[in-house]
Amino acid sequence: MALQSLFNYSTVKYMVAKNRKIGVLYRIFQLTVIGYLIGWVFVIKKGYQAIDETVDSSVVTKVKGVALTNTTGTGVHLWGPEDYVIPQQGERVLFITTNFIETPNQKLGTCSESSKVLDAICTKNEDCTQGEAFQIGNGIQTGVCLKNSRNPTGTCEIYGWCPIENSQRPEVPLLTKAENFTLYIKNFIRFSKFNFSKSNVLETHNETYLKTCLYDKIHHPYCPIFRLGDVVHKAGHNFQDMAVLGGSIGILIEWRCDLDKGYSKCHPQYSFTSMETGTTTSSVAAGYNFRYARYFKNADGEVHRTLYKVYGIHIDIIVYGTAGMFNIIPTVINIGSGLALMGAGMTICDILLLYLMKESTLYREKKFETVSRKDIRSEKQKQEKPSQQDMLMSPITTD
Amino acid sequence: MALQSLFNYSTVKYMVAKNRKIGVLYRIFQLTVIGYLIGWVFVIKKGYQAIDETVDSSVVTKVKGVALTNTTGTGVHLWGPEDYVIPQQGERVLFITTNFIETPNQKLGTCSESSKVLDAICTKNEDCTQGEAFQIGNGIQTGVCLKNSRNPTGTCEIYGWCPIENSQRPEVPLLTKAENFTLYIKNFIRFSKFNFSKSNVLETHNETYLKTCLYDKIHHPYCPIFRLGDVVHKAGHNFQDMAVLGGSIGILIEWRCDLDKGYSKCHPQYSFTSMETGTTTSSVAAGYNFRYARYFKNADGEVHRTLYKVYGIHIDIIVYGTAGMFNIIPTVINIGSGLALMGAGMTICDILLLYLMKESTLYREKKFETVSRKDIRSEKQKQEKPSQQDMLMSPITTD
Amino acid sequence: MALQSLFNYSTVKYMVAKNRKIGVLYRIFQLTVIGYLIGWVFVIKKGYQAIDETVDSSVVTKVKGVALTNTTGTGVHLWGPEDYVIPQQGERVLFITTNFIETPNQKLGTCSESSKVLDAICTKNEDCTQGEAFQIGNGIQTGVCLKNSRNPTGTCEIYGWCPIENSQRPEVPLLTKAENFTLYIKNFIRFSKFNFSKSNVLETHNETYLKTCLYDKIHHPYCPIFRLGDVVHKAGHNFQDMAVLGGSIGILIEWRCDLDKGYSKCHPQYSFTSMETGTTTSSVAAGYNFRYARYFKNADGEVHRTLYKVYGIHIDIIVYGTAGMFNIIPTVINIGSGLALMGAGMTICDILLLYLMKESTLYREKKFETVSRKDIRSEKQKQEKPSQQDMLMSPITTD
Asked: Do the Cβ atoms of A108 and C11 come within 8 Å?
């Protein structure tokens, strides 16, 4: 008997109100929910897909091009990638020298601190504290104040690499030809959730194309070779301006892959952004520079060095993206919550029907069938003799 | 009165159809949804957990081993990690030299461009444009075409580092012993959503084990020391083949942590992948090489340099993973949407019951209780005198 | 007719049980669900927002400060950032030298292996295998066992850079002043899902502030300049202790942005963590060191080098965070699943009401209105002549 009733089908009873206003309102609401669910959630937002938002990425870069500089210190000098790209091994983050200050033949010894280090300006030896370093200075103070014809301002003497760094930065970038350098980017990505991997160097292209092409948003959107001047320009800067003080540029590679559409439809998209904040040319926030030194020994074994302060384009290749693939769980969640929302719409329509219509009292009575004390009393009587009303209203017991 | 009715319990009325077909169908659907929810969503996919898909990671590496090379140029040379690992400081991305072309004693001056630079081949001076650089050349053209016994092809003269780079790459890797180098990986991870951090260097192992072990998938799955040859082999390449031209290898460290199970159950898993695309050995897409130079000054202070073009294994250690921990929100979302889906199943069964069964008309009548115009009319009469029918049907007003 | 019934409004019929216990229970459950949904999901967890958990980030660093060292080998030496920061170009991961072992004037040749390489200890030539390298040794064995007054232990002779590295590490860090070095961090972030980018160098601050400020959790929480000693201290270490052997420190930058509140409310938060595992000082797991060499040529063109084994603070700047912005899909999912859960509560209350109450039988009869065989029989009769009961119960057909 219990087993038999297990296979009965129980379905919710409805009260049908012939009320056009509420009827139309509810149909509109239903259509809105269905439209939202199908149109927005499923078609536009692909809510039937599981999403991998974390792209694992490996980037290899290679810069090509040479440039000639002619400075008073060292004369004509040829710069190849082994010199102007730092680090040379072709990483995701790279720096391309566009301007520099060279200070050759520095030796350890004593000399006067730069007058640009404001704390170092002195008039007498007591202004200089032996053994202390200036925060942004070039060495350790000896405690002597140097003031002579070659140093009329008067600055503290320091022990350090002397002579101190030249402070005159060329106003025109020394490697102006850097604008024509090309940057080759090889990007290997992986969506670990779907075990999917791909490279931006498309396999369909032939070798010659990859050696000679140049990225162009419209004509060569998948060519992985970029002209440096174009990159800076697309990021909203003038190359020759930025080359003086240096700057930070982001090359963004976006992978937005619908894996339901297959391997070949998953392409990278390149965009370029400036990573400079604000427009000021303050020495701390703007530009990009750092120092490195090359060490030499002379015939006597004494060490001297050439110090380079280099300015240039700092390129950070940022790979991001998402991959989506059909998955039952987000599909069920989106359908389920949409359906539940439809139930919520019924609650609102009910409030209108049951409390704001002329016939509200009737509808309330019909919708809510109260089991009253009278029913309970008659129930107790029924246990003595089944009444005629019971025969009519409660078919379970009679069947 | 209103307060009292607030504590009445309203429950949905059901119509029970003694229809076995639909009953069984609906039970099957219910079991499917419950099975999906418990089996797939909760047990297999752990739908009760909040997931952190972003693992913050810090990687430190250290390579050990020495190799001897014997070249005609410089004779016998010992390579230690300070030479063959670039960069030396032990980063996440590292390069291990396996082959190289050394060009010693380059000085700035003029010489003929390589005949491998096709654009540089010339027959007369007019073929060479003074001041221009070839895109993949070694210097700036002087405008002279050099053609003599030592340069029978005839190429433009350039200003640059002369002599130009040797173009003969050794066909056998010079550092064949690199196969036995060991790579130690220290990986510190953090799941910021759960404030959980761990290292791949397991604390349970003793110091001697960590000094002497070697990673093996089966016997030493948590040993953080890898033999370079094994890594390349597991990525699907032959070490000695790859060592000639170089190549890119990814070491993937996966952290799949169920934080409900506790700290000690969270282990790294290593896998190895090739990051080469395709199988061609085209110079642009395959292999891995770059150049660096060491600068020297001779007794007269003149600068000369030794140029190295190095080929090798580029290793990118990619850390990924997810951590999950019980959270009420995804639990509710999964249960809720599963239940809502059960309601959707009822709609389908209803359609079958109400339109495709022999007794459909009756079922429709029973399920949908229409409030008709007659009801509304009798409602109006009722406001004059309560009818007997009303006593029976609308207990709310009488109670 | 069908069109007309399309605009009828069907609403679920309820049975109202005047049962206080179940009524109160269900109200409590409803309030719990509503409280959870509004309080926890929406107010605290901001469940109405779409979340971007992947922050794309670019980090640039700059270290300032100088330090003097005085070693017996090379005498007084001034260290600037170009020497002690590796790599010099200001990357996200950087190393600051705090201690070092210098081995000057190494030349390629033969000498005895260090007695610290246990495998190298020998008593006769047969103990040494020609052409083999010790795993952690300094060169290739020549097959000779050297045992003399200068090498009383007796170790194998090797071919390599001789003399071999000094093995005495200074017990006090040579660059003790490194504690006062300052680290400037420029962090540019991007939430690609919302196309939102920002820098940690706040635009509201003036230039002088950015040049002179020093990070302090309470007084200067947005100053991007950090004192190295403070960083190590906040990560739970003593600077002078860590400076001896080196160590790994993580600087965590957290961006937790509510984009509904606007651009200016999105601030970075800094924290500091040690990335050392365990407390042992084992050579393999603790500390941070690596080697690099500077190459020189003497007047005869012979190469010699100075080898540095450097110990120091390895800093990894880890940027993480989430951004949230109002989105309809998660809002609907959370509301929908909350509502569906309310339905689940009704099921539990129903079980109590229908099976555990005194009046359960009555409630069951009222809730489940069975369509019995009698109804089906009368339905068949109705097709002959409509009965009076039918007029009352099934208004759809009569209307």
From this structure: no
Of C18, C83, C370, nearest to A399 by CB-CB distance is: C370
Q: Which tokens hold the place of A70?
A: 């002619």
- What is the ipTM for the molecules in this complex? 0.85
What is the least distance, in Å, from the CA of B204 to any CA of chain A? 29
Q: How far apart are CA B385 and CA B378, in angstroms?
A: 10
Query: For the ranges A290-294, B381-385, C266-270, which has the lowest average pLDDT?
Result: B381-385
Query: Is residue C284 over pLDDT 50?
Result: no
Residue C101, classed as helix, strand or coil, is strand
Inter-chain Cβ pairs, chain A and chain C, closer than 8 A? 246
> For residues C235 and C249, what is the distance between their CA atoms, to the nearest angstrom?
7
Contacts of B53 in chain A (CB under 8 A): 52-54
Q: For residue A262, what are the contacts with CB-CB under 8 A and spacing of at least 6?
A: none
pLDDT above 70 coverage of chain A, percent: 89
Residue C207 has its nearest CB partner, among A133, A284, A395, at: A284
Report the b/e string of C294-318 with b at 16+ CB within 10 A. Answer: bebbbeeeebbbbbbbbbbbbbbbb
Does the beta-carbon distance from A10 to B17 stay under 8 Å? yes
DSSP per-residue codes, B320-364: EEEEEEE-HHHHHHHHHHHHHHHHHHHHHHHHHHHHSSTTHHHHH
CB C137 within 8 A of CB C117: yes
Query: Which of C78, C76, C142 has the alpha carbon at shortest distance from C109?
Result: C142
Nearest to A369 among C11, C366, C396 (CB): C366
Token pair recorded at residue C231: 């960083």
Burial class (CB in 10 A: 0-12, 13-18, 19+), B340: buried
Tell me which of C29, C30, C337 to substitute to probe the interface with B (most B C-beta atoms closer than 10 Å).
Answer: C337
Which residues in chain A are contacts of B14 at CB distance < 8 A?
Answer: 10-13
Least confident of A301-315, A356-370, B183-197, C323-337: A356-370
pLDDT exceeds cutoff 80 at B207: no
- How far apart CA A73 and CA A76 sit, in angstroms, is 9
C372 neighbourhood in chain A, CB within 8 Å: 395, 398-399
Q: What is the pLDDT of residue B339?
A: 84
Say how many CB pairs under 8 Å bridge B and C: 248
The three-point CA angle A16-A20-A24 to 5° equals 95
| Enclosing H/E stretch for C79 | strand C75-79
Q: What does DSSP assign to residue B192?
A: T
DSSP string for residues in A42-56:
IIIS-TTEEEE---E
Q: Are A106 and A73 in contact (CB under 8 A)?
A: no
Are the C-beta atoms of C201 and A285 separated by less than 8 Å? yes
Q: How do residues A30-81 score in pLDDT, each as one tens digit? A: 999 999 999 999 999 999 999 998 899 999 999 999 999 988 777 888 999 9
Tell me whether residues C78 and A139 touch, CB distance under 8 A: yes
Model pTM score: 0.88
Q: Which residues of C touch A108 (CB under 8 A)?
A: 76-78
CB contact under 8 A, B18 and C373: yes
Contact list in B for residue A374 (CB cut-off 8 A) is 395, 398-399
A218-221 long-range Cβ contacts below 8 angstroms, 24+ apart: A221/A267, A221/A269, A221/A270
- Please answer yes or no on whether A248 and C58 come within 8 Å at the CB atom: yes
Which tens digit of pLDDT belongs to each residue from A323-343? 999 999 999 888 888 888 888
CB contact set of B355 (below 8 Å; sequence gap of 6+): none
Q: Tell me how far apart the alpha carbons of residues A209 and A184 are, in angstroms, rounded to a whole number.
A: 13
Measured between beta carbons, the chain B residues lying within 8 angstroms of A62 are 290
